[in-house]
Design brief:
By secondary structure, this protein is an alpha/beta fold. The chain folds into two domains: 5-122, Rossmann fold (3-Layer(aba) Sandwich), CATH 3.40.50; 132-225, Arc Repressor Mutant, subunit A. The protein contains eight helices and twelve strands. The strands form three sheets. It has a five-stranded parallel β-sheet with strand order 2-1-3-4-5, sandwiched between helices. A four-stranded antiparallel β-sheet has the order 6-7-8-9, covered by helices on one side. It has a three-stranded antiparallel β-sheet with strand order 10-12-11. Helix 7 packs across helix 8. The termini are far apart.
């Protein structure tokens, strides 16, 4: 993990300088972009291990950067928002961001999240050659493909990981904190909304199934039923 390239995208140079200081102390290489157009260019050219992306950017805003990046890449994205408001966070997660932090943030917490996300990516997945079948849903871990009622369904990386985790624990109630650890791979910081947004997405993807559903267990979490 040490030495991996992180792209920090923010139009505030003090944020870039502070983030660079803490990341470089941990051995990361840091590149910077100050607007959305520059960010898209550097994501394509540098292929960073992770992107720290501010929402409020000149030229192209962070939401659009995230949307365009997700069309081409699964690079982890941590979004930064200046508003302590659920709407920015939800939109970012809807577009495929992996995590988010509200400004002003503790740079140590940002570094911890960067490390945790990269640790998750380093884990060797338990891939089997055999697809998993849950009702009329087939999940192929090796090919990362999903078939719902005979029709292929396109899932984002986190949605696929979440579905696979549910399938491996079919019928078992999983707490939001457990899902954060199993799917996102970092210690629970209070962002259970991350799980809720991705579950809502996954339910839409599974809407073609008449027998497979993700049930909410009030006050606890979720379980996959067939």
């Amino acid at each position: 993990m040490t030495g991996e390239r992180i792209l920090v995208v923010d139009d505030e140079t003090n944020i870039i300088d502070l983030t660079r200081l803490y990341l470089e102390r941990e051995g990361f290489q840091v590149e910077a972009a100050t607007d959305g157009a520059q960010a898209l260019e550097k994501i394509c050219k540098l292929e960073p291990a992770l992107v720290i992306l501010d929402i409020m950017l000149p030229e192209v805003d962070g939401f659009e950067v995230c949307r365009q990046t997700r069309a081409e890449s699964d690079v982890p994205i941590i979004m930064l928002t200046a508003r302590d408001d659920d709407i920015d966070k939800i939109v970012g997660l809807e577009l495929g961001a992996d995590d988010y932090l509200t400004k002003p943030f503790n740079p140590r917490e940002l570094v911890a999240r960067v490390k945790a996300i990269l640790r998750r990516l380093e884990r060797t997945p338990q891939v089997t050659d055999r697809p998993l079948h849950v009702g009329d849903v087939t999940i192929d871990p090796a090919r990362r493909e999903v078939i719902v009622a005979g029709e292929p369904v396109s899932l984002r990386a986190k949605e696929f990981d979440l579905l696979l985790t549910f399938a491996e624990h079919k019928g078992i109630v999983l707490k939001r904190e457990q899902l954060l650890d199993l799917v996102w791979g970092y210690d629970f910081y209070g962002q259970t909304r991350t799980v809720d947004v991705h579950v809502a997405h996954l339910r839409k993807r599974l809407s073609g199934s008449s027998i497979v559903r993700i049930e909410t267990v009030t006050g606890v979490g979720y379980k996959l039923m067939a």
